[in-house]
């Protein structure tokens, strides 16, 4: 009797999306930002430049979610965190930039699921763009 095939690990990406690129505009930081430390550094830099910036809060929330998931690591799960941005010009240009950065992140970390974190203003516009590339299992 053959052994059952080992299940491939789930690869969960905690993805923060800054559609209008406040991160780049206010700090000069280029996106995508990949990794926990890099996201904390970028969020801190943004919060120091503009303490009321919702995207900084969204980035810190993404880190909090990532940390929570990492404490409950299951054998069949791997995690990564990333922030992508669009453009301050919004519209089609911003969406194309978001998709380009998402593809870049997925090349580096081929995710099976995404937990999407945004500042709340752009959920309706961003969700279909992400879902067209990878399943979204939660939106925050």
Tell me what you see in this structure:
The chain is 46% helix and 21% strand. The protein contains 5 helices and 5 strands. Strand 4, helix 5 and strand 5 form a beta-alpha-beta unit. The mean pLDDT is 91. The termini are far apart. Strands 2-3-1-4-5 form a 5-stranded mixed beta sheet, with helices on both faces. The radius of gyration is 15 Å and the shape is globular. Helix 4 packs across helix 5.
Key structural traits:
single chain; 140 residues; alpha/beta; five-stranded mixed beta sheet; 5 strands; globular
Q: Outline the biggest β-sheet.
A: 5 strands, mixed
Strand order of the largest sheet: 2-3-1-4-5
The computed structural class is alpha/beta
Compute the number of strand runs: 5
User: Whole-Å distance between the termini?
Assistant: 45 Å
Low-confidence stretches: none
Global shape: globular
Number of helices: 5
* Average pLDDT metric: 91
Helix content: 40-55%
Question: Cα-atom Rg, whole angstroms?
Answer: 15 Å
Report the β-strand fraction as a percent range.
Answer: 15-25%
- Helix and strand pattern: EHEHHEHEHE
């Amino acid at each position: 009797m053959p052994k059952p095939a080992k299940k491939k690990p789930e690869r969960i990406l905690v993805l923060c999306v800054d559609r209008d690129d406040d991160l780049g505009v206010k700090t000069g930081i280029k996106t995508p930002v990949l990794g926990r430390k890099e996201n904390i550094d970028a969020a801190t830099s943004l919060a120091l430049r503009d303490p009321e910036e919702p995207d900084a809060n969204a980035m810190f929330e993404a880190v909090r979610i990532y940390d929570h998931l990492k404490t409950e690591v299951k054998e069949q799960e791997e995690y990564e965190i990333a922030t992508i941005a669009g453009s301050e010009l919004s519209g089609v240009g911003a969406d194309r930039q978001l998709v380009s950065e998402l593809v870049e992140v997925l090349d580096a970390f081929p995710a099976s699921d995404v937990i999407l974190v945004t500042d709340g203003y752009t959920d309706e516009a961003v969700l279909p763009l992400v879902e067209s590339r990878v399943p979204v299992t939660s939106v925050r």
